[in-house]
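Thread: quick sanity check before group meeting

JM: Hey all, I'm pulling together slides for Thursday and realized we never actually wrote out the predicted structure for the chain we discussed last week. Dropping the sequence here so it's in one place. If anyone has concerns about the input, flag it before I start.
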Amino acid sequence: MSQWETWKDRPQGGFALIGYWLKKLFWIGAACRCPRCEQGAMFESFFGIRKRCPVCQITFQPYEGDSPGVIAVGYFLTLIPTIVLVLLAYAYLDLSPEALLALYLGLTAFFLFGFFRNMKGIWVAFVYLLTGLRRNL
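JM (edit): ok, ran it. Output follows.
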């Protein structure tokens, strides 16, 4: 399957295109599946991403230095739930500021390490939607 077959099959219209993007980003990307064929697994170990999709052979990381993008996705996806949980703990539990800070740091580490694969999958899906994971644009 070529990249252009995928783009020809892309839905037309505003709402359909938004649904297509959300599906690719948060359903396929967070499930750590290939954004092109939606079948191949992205990861070969917990932190190790494959070079290519085992089904359609697309390169998952055609660009060097995409780590800042993963860090940005991780930051924004962990910031809101962590702050909400810490504010709820502040409102309903009698915790010292040191305990709240420890809770914040612990929750942040849990979300970042626990959902790293999902965040990396979302980043790869985002790069796919912007560039088609092609090296030469």
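AS: nice. Residues 11 and 17 are 6 Å apart (CA to CA). Residues 3-131 form one domain.
JM: adding both to the slides.
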